[in-house]
Amino acid sequence: MQIGVMLPQLETGPDPKTVHDFAKVADELGYAFITVGEHILGTRVPEGWTGPTSTGVHHEQFVALAYIAGLTKQIGLMTGIQVLPMRQTALVAKQAAALDVFSGGRLRLGVGVGWNPTEYEALGMEFHDRGQRIEEQIAVLRALWTERMVNFEGKWHTIKGAGLDPMPVQRPIPIWLSAGSVPNPMPSDRTLGRVGRIGDGWLPLSIEALRDRKPRLEQFAREAGRDPSEIGIEGRVDLLLGPPDSWAEQTKAWRDLGATHVSVNTMGAGFSGDNQKHIQAIRQFKEVVGL
To answer: What is the DSSP string of 198-209?
Structure first.
């Protein structure tokens, strides 16, 4: 199982030095990947929303990951997650391909549909068809990453004899999907079916969601003619959920349920925005759990 870390940008602020120091240490410690979260805009929270807000520091993902790629030698790069339907698909394909080239093939693209209509509106994108649109977007991305000249005619995309240059190192770049929301981590059949049909991996939001819904994911994969074992699963160990002697137990619980990856989240664990405390936490996690 690969173990990575989440960039604690919400608590360490906009200073590039915090990104520099955290990413360098994570790479030197041997963590497998580093995940950068996304909100393009900080916005008001929709009425009735009970999940996380979109306020606080969020570095632009591709820019932050490109910076990290230049600082590090081997750590994988992960968008966790990118709200794909808010973005222009061909531009995402170009940006992701460029990052994959400059990093030597280290990118994994985690995507989802998001939750905030205000952010969609500000970016000129439709909120209500985002689930259908992301499926077409993924098809377009994979075509652009694997074919020199693409001809694609869909409901939302038309490409007539066009392609990327340079193409990515990975052809295609792996695409992992989030399914479920913070208020309701249990994914619907519709969103989980999408993972089973077209996802390279699933990003469940709780261990309970994985335990309860993994059989259904495997069913969807088999119905699509896929081997369920080829779909990766990434869990998350939140350090706020327990003291150091519980970290190995949390990690083992994910592994026992078939997780192929786990990310370590130091945010919310009482480090008061102190970057050095976040760094010390990932050092301690390595000592407790190993990599």
So the answer is: H-SEEE-SSHHH
User: How far is the CA of 159 from the CAs of 90, 115, 144, 175, 289, in angstroms?
Assistant: 9, 28, 10, 21, 48
Task: Tell me the per-residue pLDDT of 118-163, one tens digit each, with 9 for 90 and over.
Answer: 899 999 999 999 999 999 999 999 999 999 999 999 999 999 999 9
Tokens 């301690």 label which residue?
284
User: For residue 113, what is the domain's CATH number?
Assistant: 3.20.20.30
pLDDT class of 273 with cuts at 50, 70, 90: confident
- CA-to-CA distance for 263 and 201, rounded, in angstroms? 14
Looking at the 3D structure of the chain, how many domains does it have? 1
Closest CA to 26 of 264, 246, 196, 249: 264
- Across-strand partners of 174? none
- The closest alpha carbon to 6, from 28, 39, 38, belongs to 38
- Work out the burial of residue 249: count CB atoms within 10 Å of its CB; fewer than 13 is exposed, 13-18 middle, 19 or more buried: exposed
Structural domain boundaries, residue 258: 2-289
Pairing label, strands 261-265, 158-162: unpaired
Nearest to 79 by CA among 91, 64, 94: 64
